[in-house]
Specification:
six-stranded mixed sheet, seven-stranded mixed sheet, 2 helices
């Protein structure tokens, strides 16, 4: 018994040393596969949970230290048929797995996180030995060999397996094949290469992440490829980049995720690629990519976390930039959108700290989502196309250097924190179409240069520079002039109209401009002079003075309603030339006093009437 244990221990040491040597040699280009006789003891059955169908659903060994796992042909009298989802996930030190030939399926994420995995070997019944293990006459380390009858490989089965340098697939396998850089067929019963493909070569399932390309220029993926599968090139660290064949239609989720210094991706024309999956190119440095005109769909986070990215999407047919598509692309500087773009979804450009400008080629855009440009600290200018109806919550929050914002007349809503902390706004006009502004829309923003003159409603929420004495401004149909400049007790006069074609006017008790409320205390001289279309005017509660010629020659003016009880003077010729049958309505309690104010010198005629 003691002799057997020593013999078994010696075999284990040989296995470990051999696998370690295979791992070290296997990372080079071409991957040295050392053929030699090797024996392996089975991993205890107690380390596996196997269901009635022969699928191993869990591994109870020590995932933190186990380096070699040899799966018995049967576990508790059940023939092993497959590896379940996540079964060996997290075995970071695992470098060698030995499988029985009875395995026909490997589940999704089966080896996820097995960063050191470099060797997979398959044994048959003839290679079982009498020492409760298997013996290979020609064992080769450093190659992932798939069982000959494997017919199902789950998504991400070899996710984050960064040490895989080569695959081997039996030529008799009906589902898969391996191919190398040259594309040449391998000798013998197995095809070998750095790419694991579908049998017809149309789907790339996995590219060996540990493969080192020593050729010149971009690595050419094989012609005839139509789908680059999910996780296919995840963590592949080839310097230079890739050329995508003209036959590819789909690039799957995480396909080129975290490839490190992935410099250039080119597309052989005429390209037919149309779909990019979620995270397809996320976490790559110095990526330079021009999307073909055939592209219609991007997934969420497609280019997220790509520092120093240079990208052109202008020729595509993309209708939507999805959520987080350029999330935290620190050095994305500019982007020109395609004419087909209809929506920018939530947080699409969030955290693009050095994003300067976005240019819209078309006029189909109708939505900019929540936080779409949030914390784009160096965004300088944006011209939002006509058709956009809402500036959503947080859209430009934290855009500290946003200088110029052009809003179209289609915008009706400006949401919570939409322009929060935009400290350098120099040019912005609130269009008359805006009907809703949140109390926090412009919190911490420079509001002094925002023009609210076209939208009286917006002046309740946007506070600009306090107008100085003598300054004039327009709100609605009327022009005003500051009499007293004060944040709380300012007064103005009505000094004119925005158009001589105005037919009626209501002078309110107050007017709001740039966020400040002013009492309207006067109607200045000549304010409505020659307003020949004017038929009626209402004078607000705070007016104390009507200046000379105020309504002179407003020949159709028939109704003048004075609500103020503070009126003290009416200037010379104020009513001269208005309708001879004009009626002046005054407050009941001021009837007698106001009759004395409207003297003949004011232009008041006997044909006119003063009514209570």
């Amino acid at each position: 018994m003691e002799r057997y244990q020593k013999k078994r221990m010696a075999k284990v040491m040989v296995v470990v040393l051999s696998c370690m040597m295979g791992f070290l040699f296997g990372l080079g280009n071409g991957l040295v596969a050392r053929a030699q006789e090797m024996s392996f003891p089975f991993t205890p059955e107690s380390n596996f949970i196997c269901d009635a169908n022969g699928i191993i659903t869990a591994y109870n060994g020590n995932k933190e230290v186990d380096e070699v796992i040899v799966i018995p042909q049967t576990i508790r009298s059940v023939s092993v048929r497959g590896l379940g989802d996540n079964v060996f996930a997290g075995c970071e030190k695992l470098h060698t797995v030995i499988l029985p030939e009875t395995v026909t399926s490997i589940g999704s994420y089966a080896f996820n996180g097995c960063k050191g995995l470099s060797t997979m070997a398959v044994y048959n019944s003839e290679e079982l030995n009498d020492s409760n293990g298997v013996t290979f006459e020609e064992y080769r380390s450093g190659i992932i060999t798939l069982p000959a009858n494997l017919n199902a490989l789950g998504e991400g089965a070899f996710l984050t397996c960064k040490s895989i340098g080569r695959f081997a697939v039996a030529k008799s396998n009906g589902m898969f094949k391996a191919a190398d850089v040259s594309g040449a067929e391998s000798e013998g019963d197995y095809n070998e290469g750095e790419m694991l493909l579908s049998k017809n070569g149309g789907i790339l399932y996995r590219f060996a992440a540990g493969f080192h390309y020593t050729g010149q220029g971009l690595y050419p993926l094989p012609e005839g490829l139509t789908v680059i599968g999910n996780y296919a090139l995840e963590a592949v660290g080839l310097n230079g980049g890739f050329t995508i064949p003209s036959t590819v239609t789909t690039i799957g989720s995480y396909a080129f995720h975290e490839c490190g210094n992935l410099n250039t991706v080119t597309f052989t024309e005429p390209s037919v690629v149309s779909v990019f999956g979620d995270y397809a190119f996320a976490k790559n440095s110095n990526l330079n990519i021009t999307l073909p005109a055939s592209v219609t769909t991007l997934g969420i986070y497609t280019f997220a976390y790509c520092s120093n990215i240079q990208i052109d999407i202008s020729k595509t047919q993309i209708a939507k930039l999805p959520e987080y598509v350029f999330y935290e692309c620190d050095n994305l500087h500019t982007l020109t959108t395609p004419v087909t773009l209809k929506s920018i979804e939530a947080y699409a450009f969030y955290g693009c700290n050095n994003f300067n400008n976005i240019y819209f080629l078309g006029e189909t855009l109708d939505k900019i989502g929540t936080g779409a440009f949030q914390t784009c600290n160096n965004l300088h200018e944006i011209v939002i196309p006509s058709g956009v109806t809402s500036i959503e919550n947080d859209t430009f929050d934290g855009c500290q250097n946003l200088n110029k914002i052009i809003l179209p007349d289609t915008v009706t809503t400006i949401g919570d924190n939409a322009f929060k902390d935009c400290q350098n706004i120099h040019e912005m006009v609130i269009p008359p179409s805006v009907k809703y502004i949140s109390n926090s829309s412009f919190t911490g923003a420079n509001q002094g240069n925002i023009d609210t003159s076209r939208n009286e409603y917006s002046q309740k929420f946007i506070k600009g520079k306090l107008p100085l004495k003598g300054e004039t401004f327009i709100v609605g149909d009327l022009k005003y002039k500051v009499i007293k400049s004060s944040e709380k007790n300012g007064t103005v006069s009505v000094c004119g109209v925005n158009s001589k074609k105005l037919k009626s006017a209501v002078i309110g008790a107050t007017v709001i401009y740039k966020g400040y409320t002013f009492k309207v205390t006067e109607i200045a001289a000549n304010a409505f002079k020659k307003c020949t279309k004017m038929t009626k005017i209402t004078v607000g509660n705070n007016v104390t003075k009507i200046g000379k010629n105020a309504f002179n020659s407003a020949k159709k003016l028939k109704q003048l309603t004075i609500k103020s009880t503070k009126l003290k003077s009416v200037g010379k010729n104020a009513l001269k030339g208005i309708s001879k049958k004009a009626v002046v309505k005054v407050p009941k309690k001021k009837y007698k006093k106001y009759k004395k104010l409207f003297k003949s010198s004011t232009g008041f005629k006997k044909t006119m009437k003063i009514k209570k």
